[in-house]
Specification:
The protein is built from 13 helices and 16 strands. It has helices spanning 22-28, 63-72, 89-98, 111-150, 154-169, 208-216, 232-240, 278-313, 323-340, 354-361, 363-380, 404-420, 449-466; strands spanning 8-13, 32-35, 51-56, 81-85, 103-106, 173-178, 185-191, 200-203, 220-222, 247-257, 260-270, 344-351, 386-391, 394-400, 434-441, 471-473.
Length: 477
C-alpha cells in the first residue's frame, strides 16, 4: 500500500505576517506545504491538513473570532491551529490560545523552537489518531467476530467477512477464494460487491497475487498493479485483449485451516478508492485469520455431522438426508433467514405414479427409480442447497436465496434432466413425471418453520389437481 505520506501543513492568514524563510524551513523539514488565500472556496478533493499555521499581523479586533472559526469549523477536519503573531507580543499569543489555538508564538520567531513545537503537535495528533484507530478496530473486530460466530454455515462466514471488511474500508472489490497449493483453479465463495455469487470457478492465472500468496503462504501486497513485475504477464494479456483495467493495488492474504493454506482473502482497489494503509491490511489479515479459526470449528462440526449421517440421518434408499436431518436444517435456515433478512424456498417434489411402477414391476423396481431420482437431485442442487426424502415417493428441497419463482425454475430444470435419463427398469422413453409445491420465506403466513411446510403441501396438492404444469406455488411466495 502507499508509503507513509508527508505531514500536510496549510498556511493561512496574512502572508506578510509570516517570518521570512518559513516555507523553505518547512519544505526542507519534509512537510507538504500548501497555501490558502483569503476567501478561497473550499475544495472537496483536497484532504484536510495535519496542521494549520495561521499568521496574523497583531492583535486584530477579530483575532478571537478568526481563531475560533479555524478551530471549530468543519472545513479543516479538526486540524490543530498554530498561530504566528507578528505584533502584540505574549498577550496576543495568549489571546489566540484562549480562543482555541493549540499553540501560538509571537515575533521574533526562533525557527528551531517553532520546528520543535510543530513536531510535538504532529506527534500528539498522530498518537491520538492511532489511539482512535485502535479503538475503532477493537470495536469493529468485536462486532465482526460476534456476527461471524453467529453464522451457521461456512458460506455465511465467508459472506459476512467480505461484506464487513468491504464496508469498513470502502473497497471496490473484496472476495474470498478457496484454493490450495498446486491448483490452477479457485472457487469464489463470497464477493462483497455481488453477494449473489456464492460458487464461481475462476482461472487463477488471472490473479497472480492469489497464486503468489498460496505459493509462499505469506501475505502479498502490491502497491501498483500497473508497474509491479508480478503482473507483467497478465498486463500483456490485458493489452492483447484490449481490456481496460483500472486496478490500482491488490492484497492477497492466505488463510490457513488446520495448518494448510485453504484459501485467500482477496482485496483490490481502483483509481479513486480510499488508499489502504498498512494498518488496514493488518486489520484485514487479523479478521481473515480469526475467520479461519471459525472455519476450523465448522470443519470439525461437518466431520461430526458426517459421522452422524453414517449412523442413521441419511436415507439408505435414496442417499438423501432423512426427515430428522430435514427438520434440523429447515429450522437452521429459517433462523438464518429471519436474522439476516434473507430468503429461501422450500420445494416438495412428488414422483407421479410410482405406485403403478411398484404394482407392475415390483417394489424393487420402484425403489430403484426412487434411488435414481434421489441421485439426480443430489447432483443438480447447488452447494448451499439441501435435499431430503420427505416420505414415500416425495422429496423436500431447501434452496437458499431463492423465491417461489426460482423454485419453479428448479423443478422445470430437473424435469429436463429426468427426461434425458434412461431408467433401466422403465425402458427407453419412459420417465416418471414430477409434481411440485413451492413456498418461500419471508411470507406473511409463515411464523414458524412448520407453517412453511403447510404452505408447500397445499401448493403441491394444488399443483397435482389444478395447475397445467403440475407445479403449485404458494400465493405470496
Amino acid at each position: 500500500m502507499p508509503e507513509q505520506s508527508q505531514s500536510r501543513i496549510l498556511l493561512v492568514g496574512d502572508p506578510a505576517a509570516r517570518p521570512e524563510g518559513l516555507e523553505r524551513l518547512l519544505v526542507r523539514g519534509g512537510f507538504q506545504v500548501t497555501e490558502e488565500e483569503r476567501g478561497a472556496p473550499e475544495r472537496a478533493d483536497r484532504p484536510p491538513p495535519d496542521l494549520l499555521l495561521y499568521a496574523v499581523a497583531g492583535r486584530e479586533p477579530r483575532l478571537t473570532d478568526q481563531v475560533r472559526e479555524l478551530t471549530t469549523g468543519p472545513r479543516y477536519g479538526g486540524a490543530p491551529v498554530f498561530v504566528l503573531v507578528g505584533e502584540g507580543g505574549p498577550e496576543a499569543a495568549a489571546e489566540a490560545i484562549l480562543a482555541g489555538a493549540q499553540d501560538a508564538v509571537a515575533s521574533p520567531v526562533h525557527f528551531g523552537e517553532l520546528r520543535a513545537r510543530i513536531d510535538a503537535h504532529l506527534r500528539i495528533r498522530g498518537d491520538l489518531r492511532e489511539a482512535r484507530d485502535a479503538l475503532r478496530a477493537r470495536d469493529l473486530l468485536f462486532d465482526i467476530f460476534q456476527e461471524v460466530s453467529a453464522a451457521l454455515r461456512a458460506d455465511e462466514i465467508f459472506q459476512t467477512l467480505v461484506r464487513r471488511v468491504g464496508q469498513a474500508f470502502g473497497l471496490t472489490h473484496c472476495s474470498f477464494v478457496l484454493t490450495a497449493p498446486g491448483e490452477d483453479k479457485g472457487r469464489v465463495v463470497a464477493v462483497y460487491e455481488n453477494p449473489a455469487i456464492r460458487d464461481l470457478r475462476v482461472d487463477l492465472e488471472r490473479y497472480p497475487e492469489i497464486q503468489e500468496a498460496i505459493r509462499t503462504e505469506r501475505p502479498v501486497i502490491i502497491h501498483d498493479v500497473q508497474e509491479h513485475p508480478l503482473f507483467e504477464t497478465i498486463r500483456r494479456r490485458w493489452v492483447q485483449q484490449q481490456i481496460e483495467v483500472n486496478v490500482q493495488s491488490a492484497v492477497a492474504l492466505p488463510v490457513f485451516v488446520q495448518g494448510r493454506a485453504a484459501g485467500v482473502f482477496f482485496l483490490r482497489t481502483v483509481q479513486g478508492d480510499p488508499q489502504l494503509r498498512p494498518q488496514d491490511v493488518a486489520f484485514a489479515n487479523t479478521i481473515a485469520q480469526a475467520a479461519a479459526r471459525v472455519l476450523e470449528n465448522e470443519e470439525r462440526r461437518a466431520s461430526i455431522y458426517r459421522r452422524q449421517s453414517s449412523a442413521g440421518v441419511t436415507d439408505v434408499l435414496t442417499g438423501c438426508a432423512s426427515l430428522d436431518a430435514l427438520d434440523r436444517r429447515v429450522r437452521d435456515e429459517f433462523e438464518r433467514a429471519r436474522r439476516y433478512s434473507l430468503r429461501f424456498a422450500l420445494v416438495l417434489l412428488d414422483i407421479d405414479h410410482l405406485r403403478e411402477v411398484n404394482d407392475q414391476l415390483g417394489q424393487a423396481a420402484g425403489d430403484r427409480v426412487l434411488g435414481e431420482v434421489g441421485s439426480m437431485l443430489q447432483r443438480e442442487i447447488r452447494a448451499p442447497d439441501f435435499v431430503a426424502r420427505y416420505g414415500g415417493d416425495e422429496f423436500a428441497l431447501i434452496l437458499p436465496e431463492t423465491n417461489g419463482e426460482g423454485g419453479r425454475h428448479f423443478v422445470e430444470r430437473l424435469r429436463q434432466v429426468v427426461s434425458r435419463h434412461t431408467f433401466s427398469d422403465l425402458g427407453p422413453g419412459r420417465v416418471p413425471g414430477l409434481s411440485a409445491g413451492v413456498a418461500s420465506f419471508p411470507h406473511a403466513e409463515v411464523l414458524r418453520p412448520e407453517d412453511l411446510f403447510t404452505l408447500a403441501e397445499g401448493a403441491l396438492a394444488r399443483g397435482k389437481t389444478a395447475e397445467p404444469d403440475r407445479i403449485g406455488v404458494a400465493a405470496g411466495s
